[in-house]
Amino acid sequence: MKRIRKIHVLVLALVAALLVPAAGVSRGNGTSLPTKIGKGEGSLNLIEWSAYSDPSFANKFEKQTGCTIHRKDAGSSNEMVALMRAGGGGGGGQYDLVSASGDASLRLIYGGDVQPVNVNLIPSWKDFLPAFKSPAHNTVKGVHYGVSVQWGPNTLIYNTQKVKPAPTGWGDIYSGKYKGKLTVPNNPIQIADAALYLEQTKPSLGIKDPYELTKSQLDATVSLLKQQKPLLKRYWNYATDEITSFKNGDVWMGAGWPYQTLQLQGAKAPIKEIVPLPTTGWADTWMLAKKAPHPNCAYMWMKYVTTPQVEAKQALVFGETPVNPKACPYMNKIEAGSCAKYHLNEPASYYSKIKFWKTPVAQCGWQPGNDCMDYSAWQRAWTEITG
Amino acid sequence: MTVDVQAPPGAGPPIRRARLRFGAAVWRRPWLKAIGLLGPPTVAFCVVYLGALAALLVSSFWTVNSFTGELVHQWTLDNYRIIFSLSDPTYLRIAGRTIGIAAAVTITDALLAFPLAYFMARVATPRLRGLLFIMVVLPLWSSYLVRIYAWQTILSGGGALDWSLGKIGLPAANIAYSNWAMWLVFSYVWLPFMVLPVYGALERIPHSYIEASRDLGARGSRTLRSVILPLALPGIVAGSIFTFSLTLGDFITPLLIGGTNSTFIGNVVYENIGINANVPFAAALATIPVAVMGVYLVIARRLGAFDAL
Amino acid sequence: MEARATRVGLWIWTAFVIAFLWVPLVLIGVYAFNKSNVQSWPIPGWTTHWFSVAWHDPDVRDSLWLSVKVGLIATTIALTLGSMAAFAIHRFRFFGRESVSFLLVLPIALPGIITGMALNSFYVFAGISFSIWTIVIGHATFCVVVVYNNVLARLRRTAPSLYEASMDLGADGWQTFRYVTWPVISTALISGALLAFALSFDEVIVTTFTAGAQTTLPIFILDNLRQGQQLPVINVVALVVIVLTTIPVAIAQRLTRETGILRTE
Questions:
Q1: Local structure of A153: helix, strand or coil
Q2: Which residues on A lie below 8 Å from C137 (Cβ)?
Q3: Would you say residue A4 has pLDDT above 60?
Q4: CB-CB contact of B238 with B308 (8 Å)
Q5: Fewest CB within 10 A of the end CB: N or C in chain B?
Q6: Is the pLDDT of residue A246 over 50?
Q7: Is the CB of B144 less than 8 angstroms away from the CB of C202?
Q8: Which site among A69, A73, A97, A259 would you substitute to test the C interface, given the most C Cβ atoms closer than 10 Å to its Cβ?
Q9: What is the largest CA-CA distance in chain C?
Q10: pLDDT, tens digit, for every residue of C20-75?
Q11: Whether complex ipTM tops 0.90
């Protein structure tokens, strides 16, 4: 009898699990923004780049607010989008925040996976560098879908013992000099890097913005990337892939982030990087999932990580640059000269040389009409190149 | 057998009588029991699995609004047109590579497994056989991911392969991140799936068959060709279902081991589901492995492989 | 019986293939004691440090516990549905009987990515949010066939006269089951359950499509392979899992006379 009862319970539980629809509270379309941060829900579920809630600064937050952080580290922008869209989208009622980069953020906004955020509840927001207050990658028609957190340039990483003389610009990863020893990211947004290179080297194509390409401009970029393919050792999928490949000598030069360089230099590998300008770059945004189960803890987190002290700490843990210039003295306090090293003290003109990742859409910014190729076209083109 | 013979039918407490009556009723109407037994698994299976598969097939004839990511319920062959386009054979190339590597892996595994299985079944002492069996099965139980990753460290620069080659004075093999590496790793991870059924099939061959063949004057190679191989074939085919299908549906090995020309159907499907939220396109692409495996399974069943599973 | 040269050849081949199967596993075992967290060869020194790191890592514990839970529940479902189907197929002749084996084998014979995406879109369509149960359903779908094959093979080898004798001696259905059928199939159930659990415990492709924020052990391993921060911990976990599974594999082997993949029967 007892056994039968257990099976009954099991079956009932199974049926219940099948029938109960998404348990997440669905909030309205964001027509009514919260006007104050309520009491914490005790829990906060993040989809993040690894170390974006590093215990060195997150522990204090957990103690202060009572919000226990559960992390899901994503390896790529694509994975972030996939995680947010799992379970019916909007974070599936499981996740609260995602630290989306610019190549993912618009997809999440247009896909309805994130909800508007009231930036007035984030006191540090007004201190942000102007470029990061309402950037095109997280603000649509004046509606904010999150708060910027950090940014960094895409860099050219090389092995100082193998690559001599040192590289001077992006041209080196398109030339055959180091054939079979090169690597670039396995990410459709990599098309923009090639487009930016063509914008410099082939003005006749008329590329105005590396993220807004017409059919013919995209085709030209694709053919450049197809020529590049035989020169590559591999496309790296995750930052670790690239670190490993540099460490064991499979790769001598490649496109990456300061994060990889820091990790490699920390492991005493003979690695350096340059930032040839202009370059592409990324800027990350903490975005609030549409079905966030713990919105108050989420707001508290956005408020916490944008404060100057925390911005400084995170910047030096990951190897990136704060969006809040007030972090500068705190950075220098942790590591002398780091504020300048990470370009937080640059004039506004510097930022115009860094083309931040944004999701390509059909509507070109530089000409009327919908002649530009959207992200799904980029994705298809990337499959065509790599597949 | 301990069978309760105390109480004759119709005697005993009412519960037992009821049980007997119920038993008899069911015994007389076997279909009742058949429905009772087969009902739950069939319903569960049909609803969850076949339902899902069918829905997938249907959705492959729809499209997705590229801007909002919403499904457009309009019948179209566009997805298939893109996949089977001859002017841009990207997807055909990917499908061909996937199927080709799956076939290569299957053949490699059959070649590796047959002599081993033959040794286990017909040469080894029972004790050694038991040990070999465990040595073949244990790798199957250890994490598949860890085994892939082990190869990643072996093959990459500064790994165990280059080190061993260096020791015997050979240059580095340099096969990390290539389709060769994928072929090797796939063959490795699925090998036990081939050994077990081939061993099972070989073990079941009565020894008298082989003696008879020899008595009739057949040499070793002739016995192998005309007696052993045909009888082992169901086992080989059963194993090949796994080596082939598991390779066909993988997307993790290409990510961890693959090079610049290693995209698999699985990778494109995974990207289209998770990232583009383009389920219809993924579904259309997935019909290729489904069709391939469907044909494969029908042939495998003809060859008697299902009894060797 | 075989010619001497053939036997020597078979010996060498066997040794070669077994070495091929085991060298990577041995390497993982060695790396678990690696002093450095760089996976180069040969390793620079030995340490047991990573064992204590793994033991104290809450993520390792949580994911291990989740995998065990999922494995147990999926195995239970597979035992119930799989043996029911096996009894029905063994006992009755009906239209479509031949296709049942074919259908049950589909979830494991079709590529995992198909099963995964089919279930994924089913959940999304039905508005089911991801939980441990969505993982369990996914695993149970392909575990059923394992139990089914084991039980069916055992039933086929058992003489039907046993059941008839039991009935003739006046046993009711329950008694026949308890005293005749059960002793016959119990070891088949055990080996089926072990295999089902093993399949579930190591599954990652279907799970990536059916798990939300839940992290099973394979998902944890995959995440860490990609992020690469805790590779030594992964080595330790892998080594411990290999050592622990030796026991059930040895048991399964004891209960075994013939072999296939989906049954040790």
A1: strand
A2: 14
A3: no
A4: yes
A5: N
A6: yes
A7: yes
A8: A73
A9: 73
A10: 999 999 998 898 898 877 777 778 888 888 898 888 888 889 999 999 999 999 99
A11: no
- Tens-place pLDDT, residues A326-369: 999 999 999 888 898 888 888 888 888 899 998 888 888 777 77
Residues of chain A with CATH 3.40.190.10: 38-150+283-343, 155-256+359-386
Q: Which residues contact C213 (CB under 8 A, 6 or more apart)?
A: A45, A70, A72, A92, A94, A95, C130
Q: Does residue A232 carry a pLDDT above 80?
A: yes
For chain B, give the mean pLDDT.
84
Helix or strand or coil: residue B82?
A: helix
Write the pLDDT tens digit of every residue in B107-131: 999 999 999 999 998 888 888 988 8
Please determine, for residue A325, whether its predicted confidence score (pLDDT) is greater than 90.
yes
Of C129, C226, C229, the CB nearest to A93: C129
Measured in angstroms, the CA of B141 and the nearest CA of chain A are apart by 26
pLDDT at C139 over 60: yes
- Which of B68, B156, B258 is facing A250, going by the closest CB pair? B156
- For residue B23, list chain C residues with Cβ-Cβ distance below 8 A: 172-174
- Is residue C214 within 8 Å of residue C131, measured between CB atoms? yes
What tens digit of pLDDT does each residue of C87-130 get? 888 877 777 777 777 888 888 888 888 888 888 878 877 777 78
Q: Give residues with Cβ within 8 angstroms of A22, minimum separation 6.
A: A87, A88, A92, A93, A291, C127, C128, C129
Mean pLDDT of B288-307: 88
Which residue in chain C is spatially nearest to B109 when comparing CA positions?
C17
Confidence of residue C210 (pLDDT cuts 50, 70, 90): confident
Confidence at residue C85, expressed as pLDDT on a 0 to 100 scale: 85
Put simply, whether C186 touches B (Cβ < 8 Å) is: no
Q: Does C243 touch chain B (CB under 8 A)?
A: no
Contact B260 A78 (CB under 8 A): no
Evaluate whether the domain defined by A38-150+283-343 bears CATH number 3.40.190.10.
Answer: yes
Amino acid making up residue A24 = G
| pLDDT tens column, B172-224 | 777 888 999 999 999 999 999 899 889 888 888 888 888 888 888 888 788 88
CA-based nearest distance B108→chain A, Å: 24
CA A19 to chain centre: 36
The C-alpha atoms of residue B200 and residue B198 are separated, in whole angstroms, by: 5
Q: How far is A114 from chain C (nearest CA, A)?
A: 17
Please name which of A191, A185, A34 lies closest in space to residue A115, comparing C-alpha atoms: A34
Residues 194-233 of chain C with CB under 8 A from chain B are: 198, 202, 204-205, 208-209, 217-218, 221-222, 225
In this structure, whether the domain defined by A155-256+359-386 belongs to CATH 3.40.190.10 is answered with: yes
Cβ–Cβ under 8 Å, residues A373 and A218:
yes
**B139–C91 CB contact, under 8 Å:** no
User: Which other chains touch chain A, taking contact as 3+ CB pairs less than 8 Å apart?
Assistant: B, C
Using CA coordinates, name the residue in chain A closest to B162. Answer: A248
Give the integer Cα–Cα distance in Å for C199 and C145: 11
Q: What is the pLDDT of residue B30?
A: 65
Nearest Cα of chain A lies from the Cα of C40 at a distance, in angstroms, of 8
- The residue whose two tokens read 């699985």 is B266
Taking the CA of residue B88 and the nearest CA in chain C, the distance in Å comes to 25
Report the distance separating Cα C228 and Cα C224, nearest Å: 5
Which helix or strand (DSSP H or E) is residue A19 part of? helix A2-19
Sheet containing A253-256: which strands, arranged edge to edge?
A232-236, A182-185, A253-256, A155-159, A271-274
Q: Which residues of B touch A (CB under 8 A)?
A: 66-69, 88, 90-91, 93-94, 156-159, 176-177, 255, 258-260, 263, 268, 271, 273-278
